[in-house]
Automatic annotation (TrEMBL):
Organism of origin: Alkalibacillus flavidus
Molecular function per GO: nicotinate-nucleotide adenylyltransferase activity
Keyword Transferase: yes
Source taxonomy: Bacteria, Bacillati, Bacillota, Bacilli, Bacillales
Family annotation (InterPro entries): Cyt_trans-like, NadD/NMNAT, Rossmann-like_a/b/a_fold
One Pfam family matching this protein: CTP_transf_like
Catalysed reactions, semicolon-separated: nicotinate beta-D-ribonucleotide + ATP + H(+) = deamido-NAD(+) + diphosphate
Residue ranges of every copy of the Cytidyltransferase-like domain listed in the record: 6-159
Metabolic or biological pathway, per its Swiss-Prot or TrEMBL entry: Cofactor biosynthesis; NAD(+) biosynthesis; deamido-NAD(+) from nicotinate D-ribonucleotide: step 1/1
EC number: 2.7.7.18
Function: Catalyzes the reversible adenylation of nicotinate mononucleotide (NaMN) to nicotinic acid adenine dinucleotide (NaAD).
Family membership: Belongs to the NadD family.
Entry protein name: Probable nicotinate-nucleotide adenylyltransferase
Keywords: ATP-binding, NAD, Nucleotide-binding, Nucleotidyltransferase, Pyridine nucleotide biosynthesis, Transferase
Gene field: nadD
Length: 186
């Protein structure tokens, strides 16, 4: 029986901050693996700038030397809007002997009551919030992981790429992929 932490996101593009979250979860939660789970079509955000296939390829590039971190494309199989409750049910059906945790940023903890199907979701899975400076963690049902502050975001990386400047927090391998495929107006 494996203990697996699911870390969902748009990953548009993936960066070192995402890896830092994975390492904090592996160290503090003591799970066997972290699965990066890119959303196919996030219900609460603008559509991703890069296609699902490009985001998956960039994630594979990001984690190619990480033994305990893998990428799952489960959300692309259903297509349409990606609701976490449906994904969790699907994963539990496919892997009935594994235990799953769902990793969210500390900024999302207070937003959880607005998630689609949250009461059912809470009965299915343990949420793990990654605490950053300023995270309030009012919801005591969310397990807390502490992490160093990493000042990098996908939004700032896309802006830096559009301005033709060297992006902060983007591994060279991911930057090379972006340039090769002319993503983000690069």
């Amino acid at each position: 029986m494996r203990q697996i932490a699911l870390f969902g996101g748009t990953f548009d593009p993936p960066h070192v901050g995402h890896l830092t979250v994975c390492h904090a979860v592996l160290d503090q939660l003591e799970v066997d693996e972290v699965w990066l789970m890119p959303t196919y079509q996030p219900p609460h955000k603008e559509p991703a700038r890069a296609s699902f296939d490009h985001r998956v390829a960039m994630l594979h590039t990001l984690v190619r030397n990480e033994e305990q971190i893998r990428v799952t494309t489960i959300e692309s199989e259903r297509q349409g809007l990606s609701y976490t409750v449906d994904t969790i049910k699907d994963l539990q059906h496919r892997y009935p002997n594994d235990t799953f945790y769902f990793v969210i940023g500390g900024d999302m903890v207070d937003y959880l009551p607005k998630w689609y199907g949250i009461e059912e979701l809470r009965s299915l899975i343990q949420f793990v919030g990654v605490s950053r400076p300023g995270s309030l963690f009012r919801d005591q049902t969310v397990q807390q992981i502490k992490m160093e502050d990493v000042d990098v975001s996908s939004t700032s990386i896309r802006q830096q790429l559009a301005q033709m400047s060297q992006p902060d927090g983007l591994p060279v391998s991911v930057l090379d992929y972006i340039k090769e495929h002319h993503l983000y107006e690069c």
